[in-house]
Amino acid sequence: MSQTNRALNRILLALAGLVLLAAGAATAAAGMMPGVAASWAATGSSLMDHAGSLLDSAPLPGPARSWWAVAGVAALIVAAGLSIAWLASQGGGRTPRVGRQADGDRGTTVVETGLIAAAVKQALEGNRLVLGTSVSAWESRGKTGLRLRLQARQGASPREIADTAEDLVQGIDALLGHPLPVLVRITSGTKTMVAGPDRAR
Amino acid sequence: MNQDRSLRRLVRREIHSSRATASVLTASVLAVVFLWLALESVLALLRDNPVLASPGQLGHWLAGVPDKTIPAGLVAAGAALAVLGLVLLAAATAGGRRSRHAFHSDRSAVVVDGEVIASAVSRRARLSAGLAPGQVTTTVSKRAVRVQVRPTSGVAVDRDAIVTAVHDELAAYSLDRRIAPTIHVSKEGALGQ
Fold first, then answer.
1. With an 8 Å Cβ cutoff, is B132 touching chain A?
2. Rounded (5°) CA angle A76-B54-A75
3. Among A86, A140, B109, B192, who pairs with B27 as Cys (CB 3.0-4.6 Å)?
C-alpha cells in the first residue's frame, strides 16, 4: 500500500538497463572488431582534447579555474541528488493514525492505528485459524487506507479466514463510523511454520 | 464504482512487485558513482591528491581501454555489462506477479498467499480421502493448482472424492482469476501409513 511510484521505477530501470546494454555491446564490439576499437580510442582522445579546450574557453579566477569545471561538478551533484531522490521515493505513506476530525474550537479527535490493532487482536483471541495479526494505516492519494494482515494456520481455509476478516471489517466500520478502504492480507509466515497444522475437527 | 476502482488498485499493487529492490540497488549505485565523480572533480580542481583516480586519469584510462585489454577480456566484460542491462530491462518490463491471489469481496481487497491456498487445498483433499499428513502436496501457480496425491500402499484412493473436494474448496474462494486444478495420483504408494 506504499506510495512507491511504480511506473517511475520501471522507466528508470529500463533506462539504466538500456545504457548498460549499450555499453556492454560497445565493449564487446571493440573486443571483436579492431575497427571499433580504433574508433573508440580516437573518439576518446579527441573528446579529452575537446574537454581540455572547453575548460580553457571560460576561465575563472581562483582555484576552480573554469566555469565549465564548476558546471560539471554541479551537474554531477544534481545527478547524485536525483539518484538519492529516486532512492527516497521508495515506500512511504505509512501513517500512525486512522482518522482525524477537527471539532471546531473544541479540539481535534485522532484515532490511532493501535486502537484498531487492539480491537482486532481481541476479536481474534481464541481463533484457531489465525495465528497473528498486524494492522497498519497507509495514506494514498489523500485517503487513508487500512491494511489488515492475518497469519493463517497451516491448512486453515482462507475462505473461513476471509469471512472472519469481513466480519472484522464490519466491526471496524462500526467502530470508526465511516468506511475506509481496507486491504486484507492472508499470509503464511514464521508462525505458520512453527505452530503446525490444526488437528482434524 | 469509485470504491471498486480503488479496491482493484489495492489488489493490483499487492499482487505485483513494486520493483523497489531493483530500484534501490540501482539508485544506490548511481548515487555513489555520481558522488564519487563529483568528489574527484573537486579534488582535481583544488589540485589535491585523487581518492582513486582524477577525472583526467579516468578519461585517459577509458580512451585506452581497447588498446590495453585483450579482445577476449573486452568481449567478456561487454557480455557481463549487457547481461546486467538485460536483467534490469527484464525487471522493468516483466509482469512481476507475486504468488498471491485475490478473493472476490465487495467491501475490501482480499489478497491471499499462494502458500495458504496450497496448504488449505492439501488439507481438504487429504481429509476427503482419509490420508495422513504429507501424502498430499499442492503447488499453486498463476493459473493452475497441482495436487499430487500419494496413496497408502495397497489401499485404493477415491479419486473422485478428491476432485470434488478440491473443486469445492477452490470454488469457495471465488477467486478473481480462475485457477484450474489438476490432480495426480501417483502409482507408488506410501508404506506404513
1. no
2. 10
3. A86
Domains of chain A: total: 2
A162–B20 C-beta distance less than 8 A? no
Chain B stretch 40-99, residues whose beta carbon is closer than 8 A to a beta carbon of chain A: 41-42, 45-47, 56, 59-60, 62-67, 69, 71-93
What does DSSP assign to residue B131? P
- Taking CA atoms, what residue in A is nearest to B58? A48
Partner A contacted by B115 (CB < 8 A)? yes
Rounded (10°) angle between helices B114-129 and A158-176:
130
Q: A155 and B120: CB-CB below 8 Å?
A: yes
Please say which residue of A88, A108, A139 terminates a domain: A88
Within this chain, do residues A47 and A78 fall inside the same structural domain, yes or no? yes
pLDDT digits (tens, 9 = 90+) for A102-131: 888 889 988 899 999 999 999 999 888 999
Chain A residues lying within 8 Å of B68, measured CB to CB: none
The CA distance from A132 to A128, in Å, is 10
Domains by residue range for chain B, with CATH: 17-93 (no CATH), 100-185 (3.30.70)
User: What number of C-beta contacts closer than 8 Å exist between A and B?
Assistant: 267
pLDDT at residue B87 is higher than 70: yes
Domain limits for position A58? 6-88
* A43 and A29, same domain (yes or no): yes
**Measured in whole angstroms, how far is the alpha carbon of residue B63 from the centre of its chain?**
40
CA distance A95 to A144: 8
CB atoms B78 and A26 under 8 Å: yes
Q: Are B46 and A63 in contact (CB under 8 A)?
A: yes
Q: What is the pLDDT of residues B104-132, one digit of tens each?
A: 888 899 999 999 999 999 999 999 988 88
Mean pLDDT over each residue of chain B, to the nearest integer: 89
* Cell (9 digits) for A168: 472484522
Query: Which CATH number goes with the domain that contains A155?
Result: 3.30.70.1350
Contact list in B for residue A169 (CB cut-off 8 A) is: 107-108
Q: A88, A103, A127: which is the final residue of a domain? A: A88
